């Protein structure tokens, strides 16, 4: 029995009223907000931290894996493609040119493996994946949001959905100035952990995980030689700089629930301690690292999985290579070649609330499919679809499940999104 304490009933000031409220400014949230605003909706994007990108910047997960199907066809475009273009224009992204995609040439494959752009079991081919810089990505995402005239609210932690039967009237937030509410016609949950649908009482599943804590080091004398000697790190944009995809599996005592402050505190302290020990060891033992320095450790733990929505459709392992009439996005697949999942619109729809959508890593899929849908490119693709659907629903004042699929799919296509498998 959990001990409880009563709180006084209170009136919460309404800070903003809007058509579409997107909660969580990770890769999915930015895509959702930009897509909704470009459709003409009044949009607020609220984020608990002081930057955009979520794991794709603060988590130092700075690899887009993959925008192709493993057989040479691009399967993610739209706003994810636009982000790549923006990063490329500033020299902040490294990706194989189109003519290299699907090349089995061992030298090219090995080159891109050293950039972290080819993973999984062989036989390998060059993939359309992208390595980029985290600070540049924060800047590019902020520009996308401001260019689209999204009203951005940082340092705002969503704590309670304000439900009224099957509708959300809005969301209560906590900021340094106190508690405030944002009212909205449609809400998109892009918190990564599904905070809103969970607190609104919608069904979900959850997973415990071993956390990761990626970090970057600079001043490495000869990156090629160091990778050849040690292996488990990659080139990353920046002279003499490398990216360590450090994980705690086999090193930390237990898996954690990424929605528990106690578990997160334990993991933050343990992982950081172990990363610092590894940095010291690298400097002591690895040729080329004698004068290397720590550039940064991810400010967010690498959480692969927490809550998964159990929505109108749960996309499952057996749905690989299946087509859906309501498909709104396609995954690349970085582990299995030429296996992709079409993502149905129904996987973004929580049960029980009529004006709420989910996007990004917390959508309605099983544990296996989550490996594919959690990647940044499909997170942006589901975000884009959710944002556009939210804008359409807000304009018609209808339920999100009644958004006309023909209209949604046609509009996504016209924006360069790829919504059906090749
Ligand atoms: C170790 C690891 C390795 C990975 N490797 C790759 C890879 O190589 N390539 C790849 O493409 N993908 C990879 N992924 C997956 C990918 O990084 C994430 O799944 C993806 O970035 C998730 O995006 P998202 O926007 O759904 O969620 P998140 O990035 O988690 O964003 C959620 C956002 O919501 C905010 N938020 C959360 N709760 C609240 C709240 N209550 N109120 C307000 N704001 C809130 C957060 O601060 C955050 O900004 C990896 C993931 C991990 C952990």
CATH class of the largest domain equals: Alpha Beta
N-to-C terminal Cα separation, in Å? 53 Å
**SS elements, strand count:** 18
Q: Ligands in the structure? A: flavin-adenine dinucleotide
Helix-strand string = EHEEHEHEHEEEEHEEHEEHEEEEEHHH
Q: What name does CATH use for the topology of the largest domain?
A: FAD/NAD(P)-binding domain
Q: What's the overall geometry?
A: globular
Number of domains: 2
Rg, rounded, reads: 21 Å
What average pLDDT do the residues reach? 96
Low-pLDDT windows of residues: none
Description:
The termini are far apart. Strand 12 (234-235) and strand 13 (242-244) form a beta hairpin. 29% of the residues lie in helices and 20% in strands. With 422 residues, it is of the alpha+beta class. The chain is built from 10 helices and 18 strands. Helix 1 (27-38) packs parallel to helix 4 and helix 1 packs parallel to helix 9 (376-396). The chain is globular and about 60 Å long. Strands 1, 2, 6, 7, 8, 9 and 18 form a 7-stranded mixed sheet that branches. A 4-stranded antiparallel sheet has the order 12-13-11-14, covered by helices on one side. The protein folds into 2 domains: 15-117 and 132-207 and 306-414, FAD/NAD(P)-binding domain (3-Layer(bba) Sandwich); 215-297, no CATH class. Bound molecules: flavin-adenine dinucleotide.
Summarize the structure.
The chain is an alpha+beta fold. It contains ten helices and 18 strands. It has helices at 27-38, 78-89, 106-113, 134-147, 195-199, 223-230, 261-285, 367-373, 376-396, 405-414; strands at 14-23, 43-46, 63-64, 93-94, 130-132, 151-153, 157-164, 167-175, 178-189, 204-206, 215-218, 234-235, 242-244, 293-297, 307-309, 327-330, 342-344, 356-358.
């Amino acid at each position: 029995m959990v001990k409880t304490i009563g709180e006084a009933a209170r009136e919460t000031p309404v800070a903003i009223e809007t058509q579409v409220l997107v909660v969580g400014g990770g890769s999915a949230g930015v895509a959702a907000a930009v897509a909704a605003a470009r459709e003409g909706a009044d949009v607020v994007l609220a984020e608990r931290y002081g930057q955009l990108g979520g794991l794709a910047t603060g988590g130092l997960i700075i690899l887009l894996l993959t925008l192709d199907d493993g057989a040479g066809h691009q399967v993610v475009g739209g706003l994810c493609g636009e982000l790549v273009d923006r990063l490329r224009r500033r020299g902040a992204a490294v990706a194989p040119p189109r003519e290299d995609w699907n090349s089995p040439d061992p030298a090219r494959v090995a080159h891109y493996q050293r950039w972290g752009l080819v993973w999984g079991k062989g036989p390998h081919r060059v993939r359309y994946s992208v390595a980029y810089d985290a600070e540049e990505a924060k800047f590019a995402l902020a520009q996308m949001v401001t260019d689209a005239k999204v009203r951005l609210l940082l340092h705002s932690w969503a704590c309670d959905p304000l439900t009224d039967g099957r509708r959300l009237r809005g969301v209560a937030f906590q900021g340094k100035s106190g508690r405030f509410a944002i009212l909205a016609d449609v809400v998109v949950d892009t918190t990564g952990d599904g905070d809103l649908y969970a607190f609104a009482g919608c069904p979900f599943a959850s997973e415990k995980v071993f956390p990761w804590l990626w970090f970057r080091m600079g001043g490495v004398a000869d990156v090629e030689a160091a990778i050849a000697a040690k292996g488990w790190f990659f080139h990353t944009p920046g002279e003499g700089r490398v990216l360590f995809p450090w994980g705690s599996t086999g090193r930390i005592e237990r898996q954690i629930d990424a929605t528990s402050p106690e578990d997160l505190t334990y993991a933050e302290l343990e992982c950081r301690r172990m990363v610092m020990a590894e940095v010291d060891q690298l400097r002591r033992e690895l040729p080329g690292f004698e004068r290397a320095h720590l550039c940064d450790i991810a400010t967010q733990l690498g959480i692969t999985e927490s809550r998964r929505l159990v929505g109108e459709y749960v996309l499952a392992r057996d749905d690989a290579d299946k087509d859906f009439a309501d498909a709104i996005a396609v995954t690349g697949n970085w582990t299995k070649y030429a296996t992709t999942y079409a993502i149905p619109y129904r996987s973004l729809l929580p049960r029980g609330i009529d004006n709420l959508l989910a996007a990004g890593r917390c959508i309605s899929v099983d544990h296996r499919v989550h490996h594919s849908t959690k990647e940044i490119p499909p997170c942006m693709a589901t975000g884009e679809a959710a944002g556009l659907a939210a804008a359409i629903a807000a304009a018609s004042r209808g339920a999100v499940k009644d958004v006309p699929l023909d209209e949604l799919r046609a509009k996504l296509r016209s924006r360069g999104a790829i919504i059906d498998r090749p």
